[in-house]
Amino acid sequence: MSRIGRKPITIPAKVEITIENQTVTVKGPKGQLSREIHPRMTVTRDETGQIVVTRPSDERQDKALHGLTRALIANMVKGVSDGFRKTLLIEGVGYTADLRGKNLEFKLGYSHPIVVEPPQDISFDVPKDRKGVVYVDGIDRQVVGQVAANIRELRPPEPYKGKGIRYEGEVIRRKAGKSGKGKK
Prior knowledge:
Helices cover 21% and strands 33% of the residues. It is α+β, with helices and mostly antiparallel strands and 184 residues long.
């Protein structure tokens, strides 16, 4: 992780970063994020305007915190400038997702539809041209991933036919069904 921690963070033109004690606040065109960093890490702005994270020693915990802190701040900068998106694919006969205002309504083979309300700063998108696709958009990478994981848990993909909700690019290990030996 120390190699990641040594890389400076470049700041895009429309992003402002303020560092007060152990709190880093990032403002950008998509919103504002703030995070408390570990007291052993030092965050400074160098003469070129980049953000640099330094660690006090080469202990194992300090090396891990160094890379973590740098990655968290870089994700905050990317989130307020570009945002994050997770793509979920819905597979199965009759499995659908529709937008009802800001909420998502799923029909996943249960006796009732399931309604998912978005947390603050999260938005859903269901394109009409791509059937069975749901986009989760937001500025905080952790929240976007958690909301996508919660949606996936509504109907995880099963290994026999692959029905359920999965991430785009996720590979489902398939199993063979019953062999049918002994039938006459």
